[in-house]
Write a structure and sequence with these properties.
This protein is an alpha/beta fold. The protein has a single domain (12-179, 188-223), classed as 3-Layer(aba) Sandwich (Rossmann fold). Helices cover 28% and strands 26% of the residues. The strands form three sheets. Strands 3-2-1-6-7-8 form a six-stranded parallel sheet, with helices on both faces. Strand 7, helix 7 (182-185) and strand 8 (190-194) form a beta-alpha-beta unit. Helix 5 packs parallel to helix 6. It is globular. The protein starts with a helix and ends in a 14-residue tail after the last strand. The model has no long low-confidence stretch (mean pLDDT 87).
Length: 232
């Protein structure tokens, strides 16, 4: 019996991580390029050591090249190549769609901005699909977007055995203006907290990442780490 009890104790709950990449990019990585070469698999495995991370799903969209001088799309493609070497990571793409807006200044000129589409729906579909399919006992959602709340409410009210945690990405200076109490106020068992940032520096990919075809993808120069680049 003691051996059986010990075996039961070491069985970890299966956890799936869902990342709203556009949301956490604008909240964190846009301000600190030194963090962008992040190995999200080792980061979340360290963040949730008492669970078994079985899948990490990143929801994003491919950038369009704005000009020959802007290589943001090329940098994004490099990072996605590195992420695809991680066995637990999948990238689920939406798209950017141009939306016409009017300048609020006196000129009232019309222009187009790119707006990301499908991310929230893609996340909700995957969350509900994994719930119905009994693919995990725990879910971690990385997003500060309220659009994902209905899907999580659906999970915790119908599948009470599934533990749900929400990590809101926000820099320390922004946290005082962000709310974490939505689920608590609604009486829902969702653990909502800010995403810890201090360990990001410890989970960067190596400078050169070997691809399955034996070629390498290297960290973009503008994403290089600098001394004292990581605020506590």
């Amino acid at each position: 019996m003691q051996i059986e009890d010990a075996m039961v104790q070491v069985v970890k709950k299966r956890c799936i991580v869902y990342i709203d990449a556009y949301n956490w990019y604008h909240a964190l990585f846009k301000h600190y390029p030194e963090w962008k070469w992040l190995n999200i698999q080792t980061f979340f495995e360290a963040l949730r050591p008492h669970e078994q991370i079985v899948a990490i799903k990143m929801f994003s969209a491919m950038l369009e090249p704005a000009s020959p001088e802007n290589d943001a799309k090329a940098r994004q493609e490099r990072y996605f190549q590195a992420l695809k070497t991680l066995p637990k990571v999948s990238i689920i793409l939406g798209k950017f769609q141009p939306r016409e807006v009017t300048c609020r200044a006196e000129c009232k000129r019309k222009y187009f901005v790119d707006e990301e589409k499908k991310t929230d729906v893609n996340m909700a579909v995957e969350i509900i699909s994994d719930t119905i399919g009994s693919n995990c006992e725990s879910m971690c959602v990385v997003s500060g977007d309220s659009d994902i709340q209905p899907a999580l409410e659906w999970v915790v009210t119908r599948y009470k055995s599934i533990k749900v945690a929400v990590y809101v990405p926000a820099l320390a200076a922004e946290q005082s203006s962000r709310r974490l109490d939505y689920y608590r106020v609604q009486g829902l068992p969702v653990d909502c907290r800010f995403l810890p940032l201090s360990d990001l520096k410890n989970h960067q990919f190596p400078h050169n990442v070997k691809l399955p075809d034996n070629n390498f993808v290297c960290r973009p120069h503008v994403w290089q780490t600098h001394k004292n680049a990581f605020p506590v």
